[in-house]
From TrEMBL:
One of its GO terms (biological process) is carbohydrate metabolic process. Signal peptide: none annotated. The lineage of its organism: Bacteria, Pseudomonadati, Myxococcota, Polyangia, Polyangiales. This is Polysaccharide deacetylase. Keywords: Hydrolase, Metal-binding. Residues 568-585 have a biased composition (Low complexity).
Length: 637
């Protein structure tokens, strides 16, 4: 990947510093140190500590994240002028990188170590007056405060150049809290390509071979060329601290891409990576971890302060049992607290049963050592006090008119029982439609019944039509929703079943010997209909009772039978002057009195029928007169 050349200011600063040459020849030859510069020779074989100077740069965050994905923790030695503008002399022209604190925070979040590389990157031995030595470190110390661990404060001198004067001056200042200077084992030689390389020289045209010739004729190297030289040196040395610079690059190479190139190769070759503060010689100079009581170095605690326990050389804070758990066993010197789950009803507890609760879940309250469910007010009651951690809900009965309510009284109803509706908080009885009306709109939870008139033919109804009747007026019955008039029984029949609410009248014919007029309830017996008159036929008519039909008493005479000498039974007979018998004019049939009228059939106590003889005689007389008249007419003719 080709990258653009970095800004001219940065390049000029690096060209002025001749950093690679100085870093290759100072720090382990010319200094009389009051404090040894640290290298990585105490690391195991094939173990490397990656370090990056002069940042943060514009791609530092990218590099941090990529290393994190590889499981590698590195150290980033920061120049304070990359974070804040400085009042110190700044011949290298270093300016703040955009969003520097966000970059530093990402370094911390990704597990890297933030360290001090002075503020302006001036040579401490040759460029910084003694009165500016402490400020060179102090400004950067302020810039990285909160990002650099207080017990892991490391310092690297620019160019690796150091002196006894600098060591003594800083030892008398507040900056003596730093451990260092941290030197390197690989990556600082710009004059021995291809066996060695310095990344800054690769990107700034200052890389030479062992003959002093510029590499590629211009001193520049690509990402791969520079990376291969680093690999050659690492393989030759075998272990130690690797020096690189995260801000720099040119259009055909940069440090971020070189790291992405060499790390996978080194991993395949079996190299391991540690953070520089884990180099044994450096770790031994660092204070114990803050929670160590005694130690042999970082992450090498031998005992812990109170409230911590030792595990794998590190002191860990004793766990506090979270809500929902209780302490089954306490934290000890080499074992953490053991927590176990409370009963599901408890938020906190002293044991694992439902009788060991100390506080309760939100929907429960504590009674004794038990968490009981908060009561929900039932229908017909309302809440006067909410459930609290130590007391149950308090409910009171609604007014009797309410099904549910929001408070006391008849005006706090929220719903009503059946047969009532809600109006302005009150439950009112639903209207019952009067006779002759029906509920055209039923009573609802919030509206009363609406009644409308039935059809005129209905006594009660369930709709407006004539076939929506529910009951009928007297003398009517309900048939398929309509009101029909009750039938009356015809003469000769009687009522078997009276007209009911849903059935018409049922009639039955009178039996022989009984009769009934129209609309009779029962058939009455005719009794003996014989009237004693030989000239009538007597019978029981089912519609009229006893009837007497006149017969022709002289039929036999007309046929030649002798005339009686006198009318029977005192019948009145009469002949005309010629002595010829008259024609019998039938009398109208006698009408039997209705049964039960109090009248008799005309029979006397001895069984005779008084008066019938006179009627017979009168009839004979009429017959004779008729005959005489006939003869007269015949004679006249």
């Amino acid at each position: 990947m080709l990258l653009p050349v970095v800004t001219a200011v940065v390049l000029a600063a690096c060209q002025t510093e001749h950093r690679g040459l100085d870093e290759a020849t100072t720090g382990n030859v010319r200094q009389a140190l009051s404090q040894t510069q640290f290298t990585g020779t105490s690391l195991p074989a094939k173990t490397l500590a990656l370090t990056f100077d002069d940042g943060p740069g514009t791609r530092t965050a990218e590099l941090s994240g990529w290393l994190h994905t590889q499981g590698i923790q590195a150290a980033f030695f920061v120049n304070g002028a990359r974070v804040n503008t400085t009042p110190l002399p700044n011949p290298n022209g270093i300016t703040p990188t955009p969003n520097p604190t966000q970059i530093l925070q990402q370094l911390v979040d990704d597990g890297h170590l933030v360290a001090n590389h002075t503020t302006t990157h001036r040579n401490i031995r040759t460029e910084v007056p003694s009165n500016q030595l402490a400020p060179e470190l102090a400004e950067t110390d302020n810039a990285i405060a909160g990002f650099a661990p207080v017990n892991r404060l490391l310092f690297r001198a620019p160019y690796g150049d150091w002196s006894t004067l600098a060591a003594n001056t800083l030892a008398a200042s507040a900056m003596n809290k730093y451990v260092g200077p941290i030197y390197w084992d690989m990556g600082g030689n710009s004059t021995a390509y291809p066996g060695n390389a310095a990344d800054w020289a690769c990107w700034q045209g200052q890389l030479t071979d062992t003959n002093g010739e510029l590499v590629n004729g211009n001193g520049y190297a690509t990402t791969t060329q520079c990376g291969d030289a680093y690999l050659n040196e690492i393989r030759a040395v075998g272990r130690g601290i690797v020096l690189m610079h995260d801000p720099y690059g040119w259009d055909q190479g940069d440090t971020v891409e070189m790291v992405k190139y060499i790390v996978p190769i080194l991993q395949k070759e079996g190299y391991a990576f540690v953070r520089v503060d884990q180099v044994p010689a450096i770790a031994a100079a660092l204070p114990c971890d803050a929670n160590c009581l005694t130690c042999t170095g970082p992450n090498a605690c031998t005992s812990c302060v109170a409230g911590s326990y030792l595990a794998g050389g590190t002191c860990h804070p004793c766990s506090t049992c979270a809500n929902g758990t209780f302490q089954a066993s306490a934290c000890v010197a080499n074992a953490d607290t053991v927590c176990q789950a409370c009963d599901a009803t408890c938020t906190t507890c002293k044991g694992g049963t439902s009788n060991d609760c100390s506080t309760c879940q939100a929907d429960r309250y504590l009674e004794g050592n038990r968490c009981l469910p908060c009561t929900a007010c039932a229908a017909g009651t309302y809440q006067t006090a909410t459930c609290t951690p130590s007391a149950n809900t308090v409910c009171e009965a609604c007014d009797a008119s309410c099904a549910t309510c929001a408070g006391a009284g008849t005006s706090a109803c929220t719903t009503c029982a059946g047969g009532a509706y809600l109006s302005n908080g009150k439950c009112l009885a639903c209207n019952s439609c009067a006779a002759g009306t029906y509920a055209s709109t039923a009573c609802t939870a919030t509206t009363d019944t609406v009644c409308s008139p039935c059809a005129a033919s209905c006594a009660t109804c369930h709709g407006p039509g004539a076939n929506d009747c529910g009951s009928c007026a007297p003398k009517e019955f309900l048939s398929n929703g309509s009101c029909e008039s009750c039938s009356t029984c015809a003469a000769g029949t009687s009522t078997a079943t009276a007209c009911g609410t849903t059935e018409d009248t049922k009639c039955v014919a009178c039996t022989n010997g009984t009769w009934a007029p129209a609309n009779a309830q029962t058939c009455e017996p005719c009794g003996n209909c014989d009237d004693g008159n030989a000239c009538t036929t007597d019978r029981c008519d089912p519609t009229r009772g006893c009837v007497h039909e006149q017969t022709d008493c002289n039929v036999a005479a007309d046929a030649g039978s002798p005339e009686p000498s006198a009318p029977p039974d005192g019948a009145v007979g009469a002949e005309d002057d010629a002595g010829a018998p008259s024609t019998v004019t039938p009398l109208p049939p006698p009408v039997s009195p209705p049964s039960g009228s109090g009248c008799t059939t005309g029979r006397a106590r001895d069984g005779s029928r008084p008066g019938l003889g006179l009627l017979a005689l009168f009839g004979v007389a009429l017959m004779r007169r008729s005959r005489g008249a006939g003869r007269g007419r015949n004679q006249d003719s």
